[in-house]
Write a structure and sequence with these properties.
alpha+beta, about 90 residues, two-stranded antiparallel ribbon, single chain
């Protein structure tokens, strides 16, 4: 994996490149939502949740923010694989 020093929120070497990309995408989306909420008074307090799965190289990276959940469906059974993130 090649390191790119232009990561806007830093790079966590404990995570894979793909996981760092996922974290960066979520943080960029959050920043956009917050900026819109700040720019328009009618959107004050606006927020959102996200549940995302990135699949590749025989692995899956799971991320969630808020109360959106990610489940694994295998053998006719649902298993929650994300942890609820509430403030």
């Amino acid at each position: 994996e090649q390191f790119d020093a232009s990561w806007p929120f830093g790079y966590d070497f404990a995570l894979s490149l793909a996981a760092n990309r996922m974290v960066t995408c979520i943080r960029m989306a959050n920043r956009s939502v917050l900026r819109e909420a700040e720019a328009q008074q009618s959107l004050n307090g606006m927020g959102t949740t996200i549940a995302a799965v990135q699949v590749g190289d025989g692995r899956a990276i799971v991320a969630n923010v808020g109360d959106s959940r990610v489940y694994l469906y295998r053998g006719a059974k649902l298993t929650q694989v994300s942890q609820d993130d509430t403030w």
